[in-house]
Amino acid sequence: MKNVTDSFVSLGYWPFAGSFGFNTDILATNPINLTVVLGVLIFFGKGVLSDLLDNRKQRIFNTIRNSEELCGGAIEQLEKARIRLRKVEMEANEFRVNGYSEIEREKLNLINSTYKTLEQLENYKNETIHFEQQSAINEVRQQVFQQALEGALGTLNSCLNNELHLRTISANIGMFGTMKEIID
């Protein structure tokens, strides 16, 4: 121990007790202070520094692991989204093709339906015209028959006597009744 003390004493000038002053010998005081401070820091700070570095290392590993998990999840979601996009695109193309064919089919159905409706209207028109013609012909026939009958009756009335007149009227009434039954 004496050697250690002697080495410190011989390093510089030590003032006598009773006097106060600064040791200006930088070579003697600085290395000793630095050695003491570094020794204390290494001895007491080694555990703290090691714990801080371990905690930092663990946080970095956890961050990397979480990032890798998030990246894997994002890649998986991206693949699912791409698959869903392809499926939706195929459905859209199918709807578009089906829509065009459906439109064409509806157009043809509408055209065919319109032609059928026009044919039916034409048939109804022709039937109505034919019915009106027949009604007009029957009406004219009845008027002609009525006028002929009136003219014949007028001629008969002027030419016939009562007995012949009554027989002719009866015969004509019978004939008229028969014609009416045929017409109806």
TrEMBL record:
Molecular-function annotations in GO:
proton-transporting ATP synthase activity, rotational mechanism
Q: Which residues form a coiled coil?
A: none
Transmembrane stretches in the record are: 32-49
GO CC annotation: chloroplast thylakoid membrane; proton-transporting ATP synthase complex
Q: How is this protein positioned relative to the membrane? A: Single-pass membrane protein
Q: Where in the cell is it found?
A: Membrane; Plastid, Chloroplast thylakoid membrane
Q: Looking at the record's lineage, which domain of life comes first?
A: Eukaryota
- Tell me the InterPro entries matching this sequence: ATP_synth_b/b'su_bac/chlpt (IPR002146)
One of the Pfam families matching this protein, by short name: ATP-synt_B
Q: Which UniProt keywords apply?
A: ATP synthesis, CF(0), Chloroplast, Hydrogen ion transport, Ion transport, Membrane, Plastid, Thylakoid, Transmembrane, Transmembrane helix, Transport
- What else does UniProt say about it? In plastids the F-type ATPase is also known as CF(1)CF(0).
Query: What is the name attached to this protein's record?
Result: ATP synthase subunit b, chloroplastic
Q: What organism does the UniProt record list as the source?
A: Primula obconica subsp. parva
> What gene name is listed for this protein?
atpF
